[in-house]
What we know:
Blueprint: E1 19-20, E2 30-32, E3 41-43, E4 46-48, E5 58-60, E6 67-74, E7 80-85, E8 89-94, E9 113-115, E10 118-120, E11 137-144, E12 147-149, E13 152-155, E14 157-164, E15 167-175, E16 194-195, E17 203-211
Antiparallel strand pairs: 1-17, 2-5, 3-4, 4-17, 5-16, 6-11, 6-17, 7-8, 7-16, 9-10, 11-14, 12-13, 14-15
Amino acid sequence: MQRRSFLLLAAPLLGASDKPLFDGKSLKGWVPQDGKPQQWTVDGGLLVNGPAGKVNNIVSLAQFGDVELDVEFQIPKGSNSGIYLNGLYEVQIFDSFGVAKIGTQDGGSIYHRWIDNKPVGGSVARVNASKAPGEWQSYQISFRAPRFSGGKKTENAKFLKVIYNGQLVQENVECEGPTRSAMNLPEAPKGPIMIQGDHGPVKFRKISARALKA
């Protein structure tokens, strides 16, 4: 993909109308994927998936269409997680600190699809904005859900903007279909937020959302 210079954005996308999806006190509003036992916990105001990070994914009960999502997270060295918009389209969380040549598996990237046992598509982050392991990191994601008419998809889902640690890493990136390890859901105008829990330890201290204005 074409590389462009990055833009530093200090102001967050979200404001007073945020809807907190994590209150720092409980797992209210979240359920394990596929009805599995709940293995995530709240520890010291943080949402965590344990020291080994080998637990089920969790899914929001709230459903979203066009949405702005604000997330603050922390991962240790070598860890891996992800945030799935509509439960289908993944923004990657990965320890990519210091990586010279990043790919769709790295932090800030939109993960690839998986077709005929090989990776297809995805969108590499414009710049490696990953902080060192153990530091708090942030995403501000502006997402437009797919459009439908007469039961047929007329427009793909689109990441309008992804700001990673204050740097613009994605802009107007379409997803032709669900990325790898997505939920077993059809593409739809609305869907949940899913957080990956089985690829390594991760902690969240903020997950907020609001409807994306036209």
